[in-house]
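Researcher: I'm comparing several assemblies side by side, and this is the next one on my list. It has 235 residues spread over two chains. Same procedure as the others: predict the full complex and return the structure.
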Amino acid sequence: QVQLQESGPGLVKPSETLSLTCDVSGGAISNNYWGWIRQTAGKGLEWIGRISSRGTTNYSPSLRGRLSMSVDTSKNQFSLNLTSVTAADTAVYFCARAGNYYDTSGSFLFDTWGQGTLVTVSS
Amino acid sequence: DVVLAQSPLSLSVTLGQPASISCRSNQSLIYSDGNTFLNWIHLRPGHSPRRLIYKVSHRDSGVPDKFSGTGSGTDFTLKISRVEAEDLGMYYCMQGTHGGWTFGQGTKVEIK
């Protein structure tokens, strides 16, 4: 069974870059889409973006311009970089599986999530 | 943009009693292939988020049958037939039909 684990610094200074990695275990990263979601105190869950195992990306319009994602199939992991962070980016960040190339049933759409990692933006 | 409105935003339930959460979309969630990609996600402190229901009414593996999802088009409902202590937490509907997935505001379920 696929399992996901987020990792990265828990504290980031304003204007700096937030970088997180999600390790995929128990299954291949290939042929899947992978996503990032965050939970803020005031806004609930917010979709950040997704990346395919081939590197194709889709980003939330509200974060496009500050956001980049990458995938490393040799390490079975994918990553998120968010630049110029502010206190509004303080959140619990989750990674999740966001679909499968060959599945049209929707059964892989956000079926598996990491436990989440709290990132605080503060000086 | 697709906006999902959940109600109620907070629910206090006696153990063993039923609970129901509504999710309404400002657009139809029927995809061009006829599928409706509406999921229900449960967030509980100390646990990874868990998908309970996908495509409106399909229960995920291991999810007890006390959870059921119904609805079509723009109106959807999650029902818990008998609430247990482990059911506390936040429940979110989310849509995967339209590009740029969106979530409802969440419903906080508390045990009386």
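Model: For your comparison table: Chain B touches chain A through 27 residues (CB under 8 Å).
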